[in-house]
Amino acid sequence: MIGKELKYHVPALFRESMEGLNIEPSGHYVDATFGGGGHSRGILERLGKNGRLYGFDQDADAEKNVPEDERFTFVRSNFRYLSNFMRYHKEKEINGLIADLGMSSHHLDDENRGFSFRFDGTLDMRMNNREGLTAADVLNKYAEDRLADVFYQYGELRNSRRMASSVVKARESNPLRKVSDLLAILAPFSGKEKEKKFLAQVFQSLRMEVNQEMQSLRELLMQSLKLLTPGGRLVVITYHSLEDRLVKNFMKAGNFEGNVIRDFYGNVQSPLRMLSKAVIPSEEEIEENPRVRSAKLRIAEKL
Asked: Which strand (E) or helix (H) includes residue 153?
């Protein structure tokens, strides 16, 4: 049924996420982060002939992994437009949605996309490389205060203002275009012992700004709540504290601040019920793939 071999991306917490979705053979599901298709393949293997699956991905490379399966529909779009495309496909409700918010090894290993500081690629970092601002645009065009906010909010970098000042001074003479241009400016801000962690935080902050990741996640969560049928499952895999806090608050309270509303009798009034504490990878999975070390799986059910 699947048709062709999927080319990349071994999903994190695969078994646990499939169990979390509690797949009904005739159910309709959404894989909001199709990527290499690993989670989609798992869902299709558990669906019956009347089941349906929609896979969202804005990256053109992901289309190479689309399965030849009549139960599957690929949606070449950012998942923030979930409701629009479900309406287009005449889907009024879904039984479950999964979103794996991590970077795939495919992106990190592509030296031309600029996602990794291991290669001297262009400062792009767009998931959808057909439109929108690039990382170079952010670095070369943002005002100093706004650039500092990006480093601080999305990278949680304490020296964000000094970093932004250095970038602004450097770009006055030579615009930043390559990864090496940025690394040269960042060199004074980290020691050798913590260099990789520091650079990962910087690149994360730029990637999140370029792709509007936090805004898109908020929109996905709100729309999924409206689409899920009672008893439907929301399964999200996060990789850093910013997105995990957002998902946890939403699943717990139905809002992004985590403000729990109670009725007169003290009962929590939330449209979702969290089914467990955060699930983390086993030591065996981390040994096989160290990149999943920070992954957290959260599962909620629509009430």
From this structure: helix 144-155
